[in-house]
Amino acid sequence: MKFYKGKYKVKHPSKYEGDFNNVVYRSMWERQAFKWLDETPSVIGWSSEQVVVPYRCKTDGKIHRYFVDLFIRMKNGKLYLIEIKPDKQTQPPKQSRRKTKKYLREVMTYAKNQSKWEAAAAFAHKHDMEFRIWTEHTLKSMGIKIL
């Protein structure tokens, strides 16, 4: 996945729960998901990086703030917190014979993500929401074109 960043121009400002003039995507997958949320009638509200979840990171034991990628309000009343990540980053790193810097970085990133996601799942449960991770496979199954 290539990394892209830019401003998303919201087509239905009444659906966006926040400053619709300042919606930033940090990947093409996020941009495509924003477009889907903006255009899907069953989505009645959404925002990007508006929900902040405190978490204790397993890597340093300190409290940090996790800005969850998406908050979604559906017509049927369901509420979701969504993280968009490549499938590879949702799996533990494959162990190699040598402990390379790349492998150690992947282990640290995975541990940090697990800390965030555990805190987000607990936060979501406490607030009658569901926490989900959308990968490229999820996006594709939803009919969201991934570039």
Write structural notes for this entry.
The structure is a single chain. The chain has helices at residues 28-39, 101-126, 136-141, and strands at 6-8, 23-25, 43-48, 52-56, 63-67, 70-74, 79-84, 130-134. The chain is an alpha+beta fold and 147 residues long. The protein has one domain: Trna Endonuclease, Chain: A, domain 1 (3-Layer(aba) Sandwich), CATH 3.40.1350. The strands form 3 sheets. It has a 4-stranded mixed β-sheet with strand order 3-6-7-8. A two-stranded antiparallel ribbon has the order 1-2. It is globular.
Task: Note the topology.
Layout: E1 6-8, E2 23-25, H1 28-39, E3 43-48, E4 52-56, E5 63-67, E6 70-74, E7 79-84, H2 101-126, E8 130-134, H3 136-141
Parallel strand pairs: 7-8
Antiparallel strand pairs: 1-2, 3-6, 4-5, 6-7
